[in-house]
Amino acid sequence: MNIRTKAGFLFPALLALPVLLLPLSVGFRSFDHEGFTRIVFQADRSFTYAVQSHPDRLEVRLPGRVDFSSASPAVQNSQLLDRVIHAYRSGESVFTVVFKRPTAVKKSFVLEKPFRVVFDLIPGEKAVSEAPPAALPESEPPPPAQESPPTAVSKPKPIETICIDPGHGGEDLGAIGRSKLQEKTVTLKIGLKLKKLIESKTGLRVIMTRDKDTEVSLNTRASIANNQLAQVFVSIHANSSFRKSAYGSETFFVSLQATDTESLELARKENQSMVDLGESIQNDELKMILWNMAQTEHIRESSKLAEYIQNELNELLGTRNRGVKQAPFRVLMRTAMPAVLVETVFISNPSEERKLQSEDFLDKVAFAIYNGISKFIYYYNHIPK
Question: Listing from the earlier edge strand, what are the strands of the sheet with 81-89?
Fold first, then answer.
């Protein structure tokens, strides 16, 4: 069965799973992109729904009562959305997405695991008059747009939120030095120092994928950044090599083609060390992730961010310039923003391991990364897009 709106847009009415004892839990989030806004209703299981589209609002109706985090969440800084209102009436849970200006639905689709109903919204009162498929092999952040370029040059939204990702944690120790120093300990210390620097010197919002010794999966790390609408993602690590003489810093952005054999091996180790239970790391899956996820839109910015951070690490720490490199890091592929992975120094090198045991040295590392991020923010906020 399909639901027809006044604009002539058809929405599929999905088959419901057997009714469970626990109430349905529904969450909402939105993503602004050039030319359109994507909204997502996510639930812990599939649900039936009906839709009515109006120029000033979109109504999504679900049978029965559902759990929702807030009765009227504001949508901060959205180009089209004003707020979302949740109400229960006449045996239905009604979600009303209120628009700032006349808005229409461009397309709609469904994603599984977790179950999500996704709407792409565009300015204007008329929706595309075609029925969307019930499900498409898409991801929430869209692939690079194939539409004609905009007539006017626009600037990106200024950076307001940064996500810091201290690598490893919990039972995932990461690399271990000769004196038993653990990578997970070092990355958390640097991450917390970096957070304090950014907040105190810029006033920007900083989120952490972990702020204590806990294990966090790769999927969750990327999801935290995406769900919190971070605009910069920095994953912090300490390098390791079978060659004890290896030293210096490296900064990576994502690519299926690794810069060299060592970079490919490093990515393989990082991907396996934090892989989600039951997931494989086949090359075909990596290709699909890279194509589907919005990281493909941010390769240029990610490269620039990596360059700024690497230059600061070289200058402030006096370490050897191992250069900006590329490798297929899973955590970077899943993020929808400029993203880099920083290998600070080699914990496998006894001399650099001793440095990592010094709070003064860790302060310098955090300050170098902060300087690199600051220069990137200035660059990003002043470039046309």
Answer: 50-54, 57-63, 92-99, 81-89
Measured between alpha carbons, how far is 225 from 227 in angstroms, rounded to an integer?
A: 6
Give the CA angle between residues 193, 374, 185 to the nearest 5°. 25
Structure tokens, 22: 């626990």
Question: Going by DSSP bridges, is the β-strand pair 232-239/339-346 parallel, antiparallel, or unpaired?
Answer: parallel
**Residue 43 is part of which domain span?**
2-123
Residue 119 inside a domain? The answer is yes
Do 169 and 246 fall into the same domain?
A: yes
Average pLDDT of the chain to the nearest whole number: 78
Residue 135 belongs to a domain: no
Whether the full predicted model's pTM is greater than 0.85, yes or no, is no
DSSP character string of 283-333: HHHHHHHHHHSGGGGGHHHHHHHHHHHHHHHHHHH---EEEEEEE--HHHH
pLDDT at 242 over 90: no
Among 131, 136, 94, 91, residue whose Cα is nearest residue 117: 136
207 and 330 share one domain: yes
pLDDT tens column, 149-165: 433 444 567 899 999 99
Co-location of 368 and 266 in the same domain: yes
Output the domain CATH number for residue 319. 3.40.630.40
Instruction: Dig out the tokens for 67 from the structure.
Output: 């759990």
What does the pLDDT read at residue 7? 44
Q: Do you find a cis peptide bond into 55, omega within 30 degrees of 0? A: no
Residues 10 and 132 sit within 8 Å (Cβ to Cβ): yes
User: Where a domain ends, among 67, 98, 123?
Assistant: 123
The structural domain count of the chain equals 2
**Per-residue pLDDT, 278:** 38
Give Cα 158 distance to the centre of its chain.
17
- Summarised one tens digit per residue, pLDDT across range 60-89 is 998 888 888 654 566 778 889 999 999 988
Task: Answer positive or negative: Cα dihedral of 324, 328, 332, 333.
Answer: positive
- 268 within domain boundaries: yes
